[in-house]
Every structure is written in C-alpha cells, then in structure tokens.
Amino acid sequence: MKIQSQILVALGLGAKRNWHIFFAIIAGAIVGALFPAANHPTVNEIFTFAGQVFIRLIQMVVIPLVVSAIIVGIASLGDGKQLGKIGLKMVLYYAFVTIAAVVIGAVLGGIFSPGTNLEGYISPQQAMEAQQQFNATAAAQKENITNMYLNMIPSNPIHSLANGDMVPIIIFVFILGCALAVIGEINRPVVSFFESIFASTMKITDWIMVLAMPGIFALTAASVSNYGLSVFGDISKFLILIFVGFILQLTVIYPLLVKLFSKLNIWSIYRASAEAMMVAFGTASSSATLPVTIACCERRVGISNKICSFVLPLGATMNMDATALFQTLCVIFLTQAYGIQLDFLTIVMVCLFAIVASSTCAGIPGAALITIALVLKILGLTPEQLVQGFAILFTIDRIVDMTRTMLNVTSDIVVASVIADNENEIDRELLSNQETWKEVV
Ligand code: ASP
To answer: Which residues lie below 8 Å from residue 304, measured CB to CB, with a gap of 6+?
Structure first.
C-alpha cells in the first residue's frame, strides 16, 4: 500500500469514532472530484454500486422498524391522555419548525430574487407559455388538496406495506397502536411480538452500521464524480440563499424552540446527534437514517425509548422542514426565472402547499423535486413546462438534498428532545456528560 493511503487509513481508523463518517464524506468528495464520471465511468459505477448496497441494507430495516417502533411507542404510552398530550405537542412543535422554514424561504426568495437574470438558461418561448398557463389557472386547483389527503388513508394496508407507501402505513399503524393501547392486557401477544421485531431490527442496524464509513464514502464519491464541483458557480445566489435558510433554521429556529419550550442546551443536543447528522448527510435519506437517529437519541441525548419510538418515526416521514423551505424557495426561484409575478396571497398558498408537499414527501433521496409538482400545480404549472429551470435544480440537487436531509433529521431530534424534556422522559445526566455516551456507529 502506498504511503499516502496508509496515512489515510491510519487517520480513519485512529480518528475518534464519531469522526469516521465525517472523514468518509471528505475523502469521498476528494476521490469523487479526482475521478469524474465522464472520464472514469467504471470507477463511478463501482462507487454507485457500493453506495447502493449500503442504502438498500438500511432501507431493508426501515419498514419493520417504523411499524414496530410506532406500535411499541404508542402501546407503552398507555392511557389515551398521555398519548393525546404528546401527540399534540409533537404536531405543534413540528408545525413550529416547518412554518418558520417556509416563511424563511419566502422572505429570502422575495427579498433577494434569486431567479431573476437567468435569461441564458430559459427560452423566451417557454417563459411565455408558462406565464400564460399560470394566468389561466391561477386561482383554481383547490380540489387537489382533498385528493392528496384522501390518498393518505390506506384502503388496503397490506398493499401500502408491500409498496412501501410510508404515509398510509404510518396512519394505519398509528391507529392500530392506539387500539392496542386501549384494549388493555389482551394486547400483550401482539405488543411483545413487535417489541421483539423492534429490538432485532435495531440489532441488524448495528451490524449494517459497520459499513457506514465505506458506504458513505462511496455515496459521496459517486455524487461528486457525477456532478462535479463546478456546476455550483452559475447559480451561486440561489444556492447561497438555500444555505442561508438552512443556517437560520439551525442557529435561530431550533435554538428558539428549545429555549422557549424546554430547559435543554441545544449545543449538547447537536453534539450528541453528530452521527445521525452525518449519516443523513451521506445518505440523503431521513428514512435510511432513522435507525441511527433513534440510536443517537437513546444512547446519547438520553431520550426514553417511549418518546423516541413514537416521535422519531413520525418525524422521519412527515416532518421535513428543510424540504419545505427548499420547495418554497424553488417555486419562487422558478417563477422569477420564467417572469411570473406572484402576489402575496399566492405566495401564502405556495407556503401552505409546500408544507403539505413536504409532509407527503418520502424520506428518500431526491423526493423534494418530485413532490414539488404538487406546489406547482396550484400555479397551474408542471415540471415539464419548466424543464430548463428544473434542469438547473437537478444539477444542484444532490448536495442540497444531503444538507436538507441533515436538517430534517436534526429537527426530528430537537423536537423529540423538547417533548422528552417536557414529559420528564430524558436522562439529563447522560446528555450533559459526553464521557457516558454509548457508541452509535
Ligand atoms: N431526502 C430528503 C429526506 O430524506 C427528502 C427530500 O427533501 O428530498 O429527508
């Protein structure tokens, strides 16, 4: 082995455990930049294959984990009163971070107009067509929202399970969990069964996490090798605004939530969640990160299993505040690029639909650019009509996706911590004493 590689390996192995993944991300970016896909297709295929193996392995445990976690979580909350109280808090806190996110997205987009001056990318013909289409259907499309909610109710839960439709699955499992909690002792066989499933899927996760470092290295290398680092120059204003929005969430909104509603220290929570944040960044999937999110919360933040298994699976699927911020900013960016004027009320509609679209968004890579179609629909537009604008969005999506997933996961952890603090379900000693933290990855 060459001396440089020996040093790299030694650094990786010797680094503190929670820096392994960070190290994998940096090394992946460097190697990806050195082997652009255009010149080294085989290397790129190998990275992509290795990364996919890792993602698929984690995805393999997600459905059994979500189902068992929610059932065990709700059943252990016992009486309906505590369940209702925690559920209400969860909705309120998730709403707090998501509403803040869309407001930040709309304000940044409105003030800094990231989509203007993109004439070079957008053909005037398409811009005109998009404007006409928007004008023709501006106020319509209200019935879409009813259909969207209707599709969330599973007419056949087994079908939803087989298809991996997370929102209908969660709704069914949630109702099943409530029923089990209410029927009393007779629920024991089913709840014990799911307790075993939960414990064993967490064990499988521990095994899969042995591959976290090479897996995340391969994923990062593959995406940098595909897209390169230079594409970011052309639309730097838009990119900077997205990241400013994310930083505001991280440094103002989450700390504000923690300050207003708990006695916890946000920086300790961030430190304890480092691994989950890095895995989220590397995989760009909140669902795939869920096992690590739960492990960080239980083994480091000190949140009880009861709260973790109820709040985190729901958060990983339905709380996507950074996605909502991104979608709001994207729609404003696209409409500006195509010369479409949005009035205040339409911007409010965009924000509302971004909240809905983000919460129906699966926790998988690239999902935001799929459900953004729902937000565009209220403007009478489709992604196909805005194809040049979308091409720009797709070019930058991976890195933005990695960052927004990191935030989506962080806000789940922050909300779970605040609820745990309110309910006295957190081990504050553990959180404040880093020496006692258990290993996660
Ligand atoms: N990748 C994101 C997540 O898993 C969803 C998205 O914004 O595309 O949280």
So the answer is: 298, 420, 425, 426, 427
Describe the chain by its helix, strand, coil percentages, rounded to 5: 80, 0, 20
pLDDT in tens, 24-58: 888 988 898 899 888 889 998 999 899 888 878 87
Beta bridge partners of 303: 426
Give the burial class of 161: count Cβ atoms within 10 A of its Cβ; 0-12 exposed, 13-18 middle, 19 or more buried: middle
Give yes or no for residue 410 CB within 6 A of ligand 1. Answer: no
Per the CB < 8 A criterion, the answer to whether 104 and 327 are in contact is no
| pTM of the shown model | 0.77
Whole-number Å distance between alpha carbons of 283 and 401:
9
Best substitution site from 58, 97, 285, 403 to test ligand 1's pocket, by max atoms within 8 Å of Cβ?
285
- What phi, psi does 151 have (nearest 5°)? -65, -15
Query: Of 360, 363, 351, which Cα lies nearest the Cα of 405?
Result: 363
Q: What is the pLDDT of residue 6?
A: 42
Q: Is 166 in the pocket of ligand 1 (CB under 6 A)?
A: no
Closest atom of ligand 1 to 284 CA is 1
pLDDT of residue 72: 83
Averaged pLDDT, 133-161: 72
CB atoms within 10 A of CB 145: 15
Helical H segments across 113-261, by residue range: 124-137, 143-150, 157-163, 166-183, 188-208, 212-227, 236-248, 254-261
pLDDT of residue 215: 87
Closest CA to 181 of 173, 313, 422: 173
Number of the ligand 1 atom closest to the C-alpha atom of 363: 4
**Distance between Cα 156 and ligand 1 center (Å):** 26
Q: Tell me if 361 CB under 6 Å of ligand 1.
A: yes
Q: How far is the CA of 129 from the centre of ligand 1 (A)?
A: 30
105 and 354 Cβ atoms separated by less than 8 Å: yes
In angstroms, rounded to a whole number, what is the distance separating the alpha carbons of residues 19 and 437? Answer: 15
- Token duo for residue 261: 């509603």
